[in-house]
Amino acid sequence: MPVCGSWPILIDQLTDEFRTANDIGPPARGVHPSALIKPCVLRDRLAAAPTLPPDSGIGDYRELAPGRNLSFCWHHLQLWAEFYEARFEVPRVGNADTFSYYFEAKCKITPQLFCARRSNQQLFGTVRDEDHSAKWGNDIWRIDAALGYRFTDYLQGKVQYSFSHEDSLQEGDNLFAAQLTLKF
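The structure assignment produced for this chain is given below.
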């Protein structure tokens, strides 16, 4: 993520696996937009080869994952948002689509103490299954809340609560976590 108060110049990169570009134009002060597009072929070529229809090759099926992110900083407040869409071309099935996004906010209460909140969701499309369509995954959403303390430039502690819900489950999942990170 870009740092508050700076605007890095992003250079277009094009490789077989990844392309990123800053094509939005000059941002407002404190706003940091960027975009990415990731086209690639099926990863496990050996395992996929026997499942392909006749007269087709591994290069006929691709994955495309465009995304967009935005960050905003103002005094002690930081905001982030990211959106991703992925399309997998699946042999004998067609396109399997999914869409994900998250929003995150972090507030520095003191120079060492901070709180954060994050919410995200992943939605799955439908695929062809014989004569009818079916969802190829279970939609899921999650919300996190955290309180952290930076002891030094190299040591940080955090406690977090998360709640997630998946369409296939009757009840959501609760998670309490504590984390201590050391940077060296």
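Interim note for the steering committee: Helices lie at 45-48. Residues 45-48 form the longest helix (4 residues).
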